Amino acid sequence: MSSQGSREYVNRTVPHAYLDEIFHAPQAARYCDGDYKTYDPKLTTPPGLYTLSLLLYRILPGWLTGHSTCTDVSFLRGTNLVLLLLLPHLLHSFRAQIMKDKSQLPPAYTRHAMLDEAATRAPLEITPGAVGVSSEQEPDRRRPASHGAVPRPAPAQHPRGGWSGKLTLQEVLEASRLSEWLYTLSTWRVYEGHVIAFLPPLWFFGFLYYTDIGGVCFVLASSRAALSSRHVLAAWLGFVSLLFRQTNVIWLMFIMATSLLRLAQVDSDVGHSMSQTFYSLLRLVGGPGRQLALRIVAPYIPIFMLFVAFLLWNDLSIVLGDKSNHIATLHFAQLSYFLGFSLFFGWPAMLSQAGGPIALVHQTLRTLAGNARQVLITVILCGLTTAAIKYGTLAHPFLLADNRHYSFYVWRRIINRTRWSRYALVPFYVVSARCWIDALSRTQSDLWILGLCASTALTLIPSPLIEPRYFLVPYLLMRLHIPSGPPRSSQTQCRSACPREGGGEEREIREAPRARDEESRPVWGLLLEFAWYAVLNILTMYLFLHRPFKWPSEKGWQRFMW
């Protein structure tokens, strides 16, 4: 309801196409009129957004669209609102799938997920009182019940020392306390999905007619389908994402690669070194798992072939139109800006996964300078970041001339304020990198993290423009794959039979930290993240709607935006 109310307010205050909408809205109008041959040469992206708008107009009833015409700016903006309203459910489903009990383990939350796998596949050793069966009733419970006898469990009690027995999964789920916990976890995932979807640059563009919301949604939907081993669906959802932004082909490659990692179950061993993980993957692909690997790779091959054909047709350029202003470069400083973006929007999540400010400070200090090896890594990162800033900083003419974007002010007043100010930000970039890598390394292998870093670099470095919208996909993937809270200090021994892909030997999982307590889902962390996003969204929406200004060279009001 709040999103719908915000949409109505935006449409009343800004009823006409604004900024990039002046290119997107007329092109969508041509599609609505049946003109599929004329394409604006200023548009750099394929027609995925306009096709989706036309499709929604054809299938949605008039009372739902307000009986608007397909060419109305308010209706066209509603395309992104539909995606924005679906996004929290997609994010919730994504997070839930990671923890889902299935024999083929998902790629993330590896030790946490394997513990849940153990909890549902193997008999649990627990004290009787924890599930509503008293110690006195245990002998009667173990004896076969007579016909017509209805067992009456005692009220639930707190676990105590003493005898422990084995209960089936059904009996465990019938216990009121554990059922309540499962409901709480499900509710937590829903709340978490809504908070993540409230990310300010993402939420803001849900009320305008831009291509970014569609690209984000279909990339995440593709990754979600791949988590369920539905690779044909994942491949074609990835293809749809390319119709919104061509660089999403890199994320489709990442999705395919992590699916192979999941098949090998190498990313479930968080402690594996890079060489061990890579060797395990090669052994899988070159051994008995070759057929399974081909089943994963095959659906993606036609999509990549179509993309290569597009590059050949488009003179080896990834950009459709306005190529003179979107020339691929080596903009290495983009990675630094992304790290700054991730720290600015992600610090509540960092606090939450660490367990609080003090814990995060201690964790960061250990990561940066805990021993000689960590110090060396930190020094190398500082050197590489400084070199990237010195030799890979670009200032696009659009950045210098367009004061409607926040990036204009970040560049002038922070990054380029003085000759040395950009170098003063190096410690913040390095801290951001180490914090995020440290959080991801709790559940991901080194090879998974390397793949994420490489995909982010391939997506961002060629772009000459500094656009927060370009950072959305890598940030959301990082945010979705970090734990909700700190690891427990105590370890719960767990032994489970987790079959490998296609059968084979069983292996034991021991000493896996449980993620089932309230410490693993700190409410304060989620509330802090929501509050931070709410403040930013209220501020940016206020500036956009109520602080317009004039340009002598342009008609109408100009407005601040991401």
Task: Write a concise synopsis of the structure shown.
The chain is an all-alpha fold. The chain has helices at 2-13, 21-32, 48-59, 62-65, 73-98, 110-121, 138-142, 169-174, 176-197, 200-204, 212-227, 231-242, 248-264, 274-286, 290-297, 301-313, 333-354, 357-369, 372-391, 397-401, 406-415, 421-424, 426-441, 446-460, 472-481, 523-546; strands at residues 124-126, 165-167, 498-499, 506-507, 549-550, 557-558.
Instruction: Give the DSSP E fraction (strand runs of 2 or more residues).
Output: under 5%
Radius of gyration: 26 Å
What is the arithmetic mean of pLDDT?
80
Rounded to the nearest angstrom, the distance between the terminal CA atoms is 23 Å
For the report, how would you describe the main beta sheet? 2 strands, antiparallel
Shape: globular
Low-pLDDT runs:
101-167, 266-271, 490-519
Count of individual helical segments = 26
Structural class by helix and strand composition: mainly alpha
> Largest sheet, order of strands side by side?
1-2
Helix percentage range: 55-70%
Number of strands: 6
Pfam family, one: DIE2_ALG10
InterPro entries: Alg10
GO molecular function: dolichyl pyrophosphate Glc2Man9GlcNAc2 alpha-1,2-glucosyltransferase activity
GO biological process, one term: dolichol-linked oligosaccharide biosynthetic process
